[in-house]
Specification:
Elements lengths: L8 H5 L2 E4 L10 E5 L12 H9 L10 E5 L8 H5 L1 H7 L4 E4 L2 H15 L9 E5 L8 H11 L5 E6 L2 E7 L1
Parallel strand pairs: 1-5, 2-3, 3-4, 5-6
Antiparallel strand pairs: 6-7
Helix pairs in contact: 5-6
């Protein structure tokens, strides 16, 4: 008895599209940029000293990375000191720069991707927002992506193709 090849009818229909926010993080490391070494005696933000230390840095490690500018010591950091590294990190090829902790930088990066994504490829499609990811993706990002994709999709679910929860239907 001849067997028929298995056909994935869901995939071949072309109407079901998976939206995986984790894809935006693939190949994009999140790196920390600590202000502490730039400070005078690693405690005081003196502009001349800060500028000299900043100019001497090799920023090649930050290419194609999401960068979190932070300070590992508890000291007063003036606004200019948080801002000075940003243009240099962009010139060095950083993908995204955020002032704060690495987890917050990752969150802000995904949020920026949600706002800048062209949602037209999802128009009229049944979309599954992938709900099982290796990265910690917060509920507010799921809410934000739902707001954006539901403006064009005909149906939105969360989960996987084999197990999902409907969220929206036109």
């Amino acid at each position: 008895m001849a067997t028929k090849p298995l056909v994935n009818k869901v995939k071949s229909s072309g109407k079901l599209t998976t939206l995986d926010m984790e894809q935006w993080l693939k190949g994009v490391p999140v790196k920390s940029f600590d202000l502490k070494p730039l400070l005078f005696k690693e405690m005081i933000a003196k502009e001349d000293h800060f500028n000299e230390q900043l100019a001497a840095l090799d920023l090649e490690d930050y290419q194609r990375a999401v960068v979190a500018i932070r300070c590992s010591i508890d000291t007063i950091i003036p606004t200019w000191a948080w801002l000075k590294p940003i243009p240099l990190l962009h010139e060095a090829g950083a993908t995204y720069v955020h002032i704060g902790e690495p987890q917050d930088a990752k969150h802000a990066f995904i949020s920026s991707k949600i706002y800048t994504t062209d949602w037209s490829p999802y128009e009229g499609k049944n979309v599954i927002i992938k709900g099982c990811s290796h990265e910690a993706i917060s509920d507010d990002l799921y809410g934000l992506v739902l707001q954006r994709v539901s403006s064009v999709a005909s149906k939105v679910m969360i989960g996987e193709a084999c197990s999902n929860v409907p969220l929206f239907k036109k």
